[in-house]
Write a structure and sequence with these properties.
Length: 451
């Protein structure tokens, strides 16, 4: 296997060194960010240079339903999958020696399939590249560890900690709180090391059993790949210790939601300098344009950043979640925060994305807004000084309203790709329709005998 193992990252080579590789998982992310693909014996994988999956995997909703293809006849032609060797990484939770490899997705003519989420992000990055720019991204991942929930009719509750008590909320940054489920955290670290991933830090967040993982800044596709892999390995680490990990935006009533905060800057490819800073260290006009792009276009991409009905339960005041498109320096009540930094690290933190979003689409959506801002060259609203929660919300209140804004925005549809936007909207409207057909416990409790 030396003909291809030389192409994979060092961490993957170290993982299989001196051992027989049993299996290779050939995977892609679907619209929801679920890993789909094929697992095959390594002995078979080495003799193939491409694999096939039907394009219908991008028409599957989170419930598993198939959506009618809004682009025409539903013939399910095969797509061509080729390995992106740079993504090869261990699956260290498996019983045998297994590698995961994300695959490039093209049609039979060799064109990138426009509905593949990873290709959507690459499309946005190509727009930046054409201008001589390169985005730099640093994501934050929030999630909950919860007790096993085997009955969907029952509320989600926090997990049992090592003390024998359930994890408590309102313990942000507490070291003893995160130690309550230290064995899960230890496995997350071990898995990350085996996969060659760099964790910038792990901390206890404000919710009961809520954890945040910060990743080092870097290339957008590479970091989206990491988040895609991390979601899977974190779930596996939790299952080893009799609990679930969930990336729902709002899994527990009365607790904060889980965000995927996105720190974003842009560098000039030729100089390597941050275009958000002037040579004297001051904020550049491009920095203002980028903020304006986010303010002007984020409403149209909320359907990507908050992709499910549950996502909108996170957008409430006083739970450290954004409800606005205000911007401010070191102000966590604003949807767009400018963290304290030196000129080289000047960046914008987009606090609107939920952790339930597909990482490829969440990053693509946020970067699309900045790109549009840099091209349009408009100025943002004045900086918000004080509590932005006092202002009216700028955000849609539900998935249906968000999809209407998404459908009506010609600039967003153009940069993300018309075919992708059409298919994404069809999938999400189908999910929303399914949700509206479900009768909730609230309705049974308050309407059954009272109306």
């Amino acid at each position: 296997m030396s003909d291809w193992t030389d192409l994979i990252p060092q961490a993957a080579r170290d993982y299989i060194a001196g051992r027989r590789l049993d299996e290779v998982e050939c995977i892609v992310a679907d619209i929801a960010g679920v890993a789909r693909g094929k697992a095959m014996p390594a002995s078979k994988f080495v003799h193939q240079d491409r694999f096939f999956l039907p394009n219908s995997i991008f028409l599957q909703s989170i419930t598993g339903e198939w959506v009618d293809n809004p682009m025409g006849a539903f013939t399910e032609p095969d797509m061509i999958l080729t390995p992106d060797w740079a993504t090869a990484t261990a699956a260290p939770w498996t019983a045998d020696v297994t590698l995961q490899i994300i695959h490039n997705v093209e049609d039979q003519q060799g064109n990138p399939v426009p509905t593949a989420p990873r290709n959507v992000l690459k499309r946005i990055l190509a727009l930046y590249e054409a201008e001589g720019w390169k985005p730099v991204i640093a994501p934050e991942m929030e999630f909950f560890l919860v007790a096993r929930n085997l009955d969907p009719n029952q509320p989600i509750i926090p997990p049992m900690g090592r003390s024998g008590r359930r994890a408590a909320g309102k313990q942000a940054y507490s070291m003893s709180a995160v130690d309550e489920y230290g064995k899960v955290i230890d496995d997350i670290y071990d898995f990350a090391e085996a996969q060659g991933f760099e964790i910038d830090g792990i901390l206890q967040e404000g919710g009961a059993g809520q954890v945040e993982i910060n990743l080092a800044h870097g290339d957008a596709v590479h970091l989206a790949d990491q988040i895609f892999f991390f979601k899977r390995q974190i779930r596996e680490a939790a299952l080893r210790h009799d609990c679930f990990a969930t990336f729902m935006a709002k899994p527990i009533e009365g607790e904060p939601g889980s965000a995927m905060h996105i720190h974003q800057s842009v560098v000039d490819v030729k100089t390597g300098e941050n275009i958000f800073s002037e040579p004297d260290g001051s904020e550049s006009i491009q920095f203002m344009y980028a903020i304006a792009g986010l303010q002007n276009h984020l409403p149209a991409v909320i359907a990507l950043l908050a992709p499910y009905v549950n996502s909108y339960r996170r957008y409430v005041p006083d739970f450290a979640a954004p409800i606005n498109l205000e911007w401010g320096r070191d102000n966590r009540t604003t949807g767009l925060r400018v963290p304290i930094s030196g000129p080289a690290a000047r960046r914008i933190e987009n606090r609107l994305a939920g952790m339930d979003c597909n990482p490829y689409l969440g990053l693509a959506a946020s970067l699309a807004c900045i790109y549009l801002g840099l091209k349009e060259k408009r100025m943002p609203r004045p900086e918000c000084i004080g509590d932005a929660y006092m202002n009216e919300t700028d955000l849609p209140y539900n998935l249906g309203d968000a999809l209407d804004l998404f459908s009506d925005s010609a600039p967003v549809r153009e940069v993300l790709g018309i075919e992708f936007c059409t298919v994404y909207e069809a999938v999400k409207r189908n999910e929303y329709k399914e949700f509206l057909q479900v009768i909730s416990p609230w309705e049974r409790e308050h309407l059954l005998l009272n109306v």
